[in-house]
What does this fold into?
Amino acid sequence: MTSAVPPVLARWFECMDSDDPDRVLDMISDDFVMSVQFSKGAGLSAEFVGDREGLVGYLSQREKSVLVHHIDTGAVVDDFELVLGRTTRGGAFEASFNATAKLDAEGKVRRLLIARTPEVSFAT
It folds into this structure.
């Protein structure tokens, strides 16, 4: 295992934090499948699942340019990228997240699993 800032996931979250998060659609493979487990805390959560259309639906309901994703640690293992990070809103902690991506031979995201919660912080 190699510790590193996973380049594809780093770019993914840079896009998500921008005014044009739809750019991530150019980063996915034809057989893309995803699940985003999204907790707002206090047991309130939603899951966004699907293929390209599922991602389009997820993107359409997101706030743009409000949250900032910070990757605190990551790893690249073969064709997998994994990160642990946090989101902030106006500089204040909002939630912790894990993300795992499986990449194809061209470096496009084939599988994506993201889980986030405001209930757990990994800050020291």
Remarks:
- The helical segments are 7-16, 52-61.
